[in-house]
Amino acid sequence: MVKKFSVLAMAGMLAWPTFSMAADGTNVNELARKIDAMSKQLDEMRTALAAETEKNKALSKNVETLEENVGSLDERSESWDLASRFNLDGDFRTRFDFYNADTIFGRDVDNDTIWTNRFRLNMRVKATENVEFKGRLAMFKTWGNQSAFANEGNPMFPLFDGNVTRTPVGSSALYVDRAYVNWNNIGGLPMWFSIGRRPTTDGPPGQVRMGVDERLATPMAFMDWPFDGLSVGYSWNWGVEPMGDSRVRFCYGRGFEAGLQNDDVGALNDMDFAGFSWDIMKKGDRFAYIQSFMAFDL
User: pTM for the full model?
Assistant: First the structure.
């Protein structure tokens, strides 16, 4: 019995190193696989890092290009700021009419087809915070006509300085319909001074006829004629909600320049006019207005 046990013990001792060696071999293989996996991951990381480095180089080039562009923009910003102060808009209208009438002398006058084109180019320039320029060029022309036309009675249709942009004439020229400078908020007060070719056409209630909601010019109670002149105005709020705002203006202008004249009988004089324009109250659609003008040497 003792001998048999000794033999078994000896066999167990001989088998143990073999089992231990097998276990060690398994661990080594597992470790080798992990090392291979880590090596692959490291290679992938190196590849990704190389790609990222290339991206960073490209990004650096883009940043340099962007810096150059920003520098160029900074150099041009002053001129761009000036250009941004200019606002342009306009309108074009074409119209067809026909006329047929019997005169008191028994003659028939007619024009079976007459086409007209009207073009207006508006501009606005913000010179400074409180100084701005506004202007409008206009063309009003009959189709196929480059010379003024006359009726059969042979007075020429009168064309004056004040209606050259508002009468269809035989010319494709653009005329100055409006050109004036406003100086606003004088001394920090709600006061302004304006000089130039005045915006005195198509004012209330003229915009109703044209289907426009906003006010286009000084109200045309007695004045719907562009002229060269100036105005000084002051505005205020009544402090009562139903009354809204109010403003009053003094206006002066010249409608006709006689030029050099001999001191003879019948010599022409310059035609000037002056007056007051008062928006009594304006609140929403409610508007009350008074206008008073005097023309001299008409």
Answer: 0.64
| pLDDT tens-digit readout, 151-206 | 544 455 667 777 778 877 777 888 999 999 999 999 999 999 999 999 888 877 77
Q: How far apart are CA 120 and CA 140, in angstroms?
A: 9
Q: Confirm whether 271 is domain-assigned.
A: yes
Chosen domain end from 122, 148, 179: 179
β-bridge mates for residue 229, sequence order: 196, 253
List pLDDT tens digits, range 6-63. Answer: 544 444 444 445 545 555 556 777 777 888 888 888 888 888 888 888 888 888 888 8
Which residue range(s) make up the domain with 94?
85-179
Number of domain units in the chain:
3
Sheet-wide strand order for 175-183: 86-102, 108-126, 131-142, 175-183, 191-197, 228-237, 245-256, 271-283, 286-296
Place of tokens 């009959």: 142
Residue 61, φ and ψ in degrees, nearest 5: -65, -40
What is the rounded distance in angstroms from the CA atom of residue 247 to the CA atom of residue 49?
Answer: 73
